[in-house]
Write a structure and sequence with these properties.
The chain has 258 residues and is mainly α. The chain has 10 helices and 6 strands; from the N terminus they run ββββββαααααααααα. Strand 5 and strand 6 form a beta hairpin. Helix 2 runs antiparallel to helix 5, helix 2 packs across helix 8 and helix 8 packs across helix 10.
Length: 258
């Protein structure tokens, strides 16, 4: 690559020229305009201030990070400690996929088992008042065509994001009066950790698959670091297992007569 610098109308002898060569050195630009030189092996480098990103990889570098994560997974090898981190991050993503699938499927199962959910409460929880009447008509028409109950159709229609902890919690409370913080029987510390793991998955998917620390924005504000890898992944698997088992039991217990 060659760079030429000169004024408008400059003669050839007034033009400055520089010739560059390809390098593996990586650079990035700080929000303030400062150019930061990174090491050749640097990946997914981010800087935070007050919990906000002020320095992040370029678009091309983000893609390179994703490609490197794919290579590590396909080959099962990495030159450093990256392999267990990438595997752990992908397990977190799969746990969240399983959580989303379970939450939706269990709500529909309850409906199919004959325990009619409170459709009106569900609609009121998720549809703004100005759109509610027309949305109810759409759901009822679709339910009739599909041979489903309105609550079943509402759950199938993607109006609820069951992969979002708060939306999942609100859906069960509205439809069946089931309260995660009371009826599921897990301590609030476990439920808070579950929220965090779901948040970490969002970062893995939307920021980088090779995040070494899962809570960097919180870490930058004084929290203890949460490193990715086998130990944290195992804790996440055990917690999701406990939550799924506890919720399944709660949906049975709450139906039994007192």
């Amino acid at each position: 690559m060659s760079l030429f610098l000169g004024g408008v109308g400059s003669s050839p002898d007034q033009v400055q020229m520089a010739r560059g060569v390809k390098t593996d050195q990586r650079i990035a630009v700080h929000e303030s305009g400062v150019i930061q030189e990174l090491g050749q092996s640097a990946m997914a480098v981010r800087m935070y201030s007050g919990g906000q990103v002020i320095f992040a990889p370029s678009a091309v570098d983000s893609w390179s990070d994703a490609r490197e994560a794919i290579r590590v997974l396909l080959t099962g090898t990495s030159p450093d400690t990256m392999f267990p981190i990438i595997v752990g991050n992908q397990v977190l993503s799969m746990l969240n996929t399983g959580f989303e699938t379970f939450m939706k499927a269990r709500l529909i199962e309850l409906e199919r088992e004959g325990w009619a959910g409170d459709f009106a409460a569900l609609v009121a929880e998720f549809i703004p008042a100005r759109w509610r009447e027309q949305e109810v008509l759409k759901v009822r028409e679709a339910a009739e065509k599909a041979g489903r109950t309105p609550t079943w159709e509402f759950a199938e229609s993607r109006r609820i994001d069951f992969g979002d902890y708060e939306q999942a919690r609100r859906s069960y409370k509205a439809a069946y009066g089931l309260r995660f913080g009371v009826d599921v029987g897990l301590p609030n510390t476990d439920l808070d950790r579950l929220r965090r793991y779901i948040r970490y998955r969002h970062r893995i998917v939307h920021i980088s698959p090779i995040l070494g620390f899962l809570n960097m924005p919180e870490f930058a504000q004084g929290e203890s670091p949460v490193p990715g890898g086998a130990a944290e992944t195992q804790r996440a698997v055990e917690l999701f297992d406990r939550f799924v088992a506890a919720l399944a039991e709660a949906t049975i217990r709450i139906r039994l007569p007192p």
